[in-house]
Design goal:
Helix content is 13%, strand content 39%. It is mainly beta and 111 residues long.
């Protein structure tokens, strides 16, 4: 399922934003809303994507986000013959959200 970035801007709170790291540092964005994951698109319906994760983070400036994570899943297990059901090798690293809303210098909020 998808949601447009312009629709996200109308929301008062976003549970979680995930930047999915793919091959060659390509990032796609998904959000968790009402316990459902949706990929974020632009107004034309194209997936929100970039080779620069900071430019994607900046698109969420001013929005209240519970967590922002960098998510990576390695194809290694599948390459050596393990099934996806056996092992979930998803790695998520917290890179923003309420915990990062204000830095200690008193500058404006990034998220």
């Amino acid at each position: 399922m998808k949601i447009k970035l312009s629709e996200l801007r109308k929301r008062s709170f976003i549970e979680k934003v995930a930047l999915h790291c793919h091959d060659r540092s390509l990032y796609l964005v998904s959000v968790i809303l009402d316990s459902e994951e949706r990929y974020v698109t632009d107004d034309k319906g194209d997936f929100l994507k970039s080779f620069n994760k900071l430019s994607l983070q900046a698109k969420f400036k001013g929005l209240v986000i519970g967590k922002m994570v960098l998510r990576h899943q390695s194809p290694y297990d599948e390459m050596i013959g393990l099934s996806e059901e056996q092992i979930d090798n998803t790695l998520e690293v917290l890179i923003g959200g309420e915990a990062y809303a204000f830095d200690s210098s008193g500058d404006e909020s990034f998220h």
